[in-house]
Amino acid sequence: MSVYKRWKHHERLAMKILGGERNTEKGTNVPDGFIPNKENPWASVENKSTEELPKWLRSAVVQAETNAKPNTLPLVSLMENNGMHLVVLRAEAFREWFGEFRK
């Protein structure tokens, strides 16, 4: 699968999981990705695709899942020194926890 096709496939999959639509408009002020709709105005998603996620990140997700108690959401907290703070989880865990979002 070409890089372009893989990227589009990943974007479509993310939009399916999150209940959004791809923004196919072109223009400098129109972000590509998620268009919130009336039933689902809660998220703005930027999709990124890579051949392989870093092993340390994959390991951290597995560790969070292994250590998670029943009925808890396994998350990885990533923080730069004096910088950005991110929370990472599997898309499947997101969908199971928050439910399937529909248009």
Give an overview of the whole structure.
The chain is mainly alpha-helical. The protein has two domains: 1-50, no CATH class; 52-103, no CATH class. It is built from three helices and two strands. It has helices at 3-18, 55-67, 91-98, and strands spanning 76-79, 85-88. Strands 1-2 form a two-stranded antiparallel sheet.
Please outline the helices and strands.
Layout: H1 3-18, H2 55-67, E1 76-79, E2 85-88, H3 91-98
Antiparallel strand pairs: 1-2
Order of helices and strands: HHEEH
- Class inferred from helices and paired strands: mainly alpha
Counted beta strands: 2
Oligomeric form of this entry?
single chain
Can you give the helix content as a percent range? 25-40%
Separation, N- and C-terminal Cα atoms: 29 Å
Helical stretch count? Answer: 3
Q: Average pLDDT, to the nearest integer?
A: 77
Radius of gyration: 16 Å
Keywords for this structure?
103 residues, mainly alpha, two-stranded antiparallel ribbon
Short description:
The chain has 103 residues and is mainly alpha-helical. The protein has helices at 3-18, 55-67, 91-98, and strands spanning 76-79, 85-88. Residues 36-40 have low confidence and may be disordered.
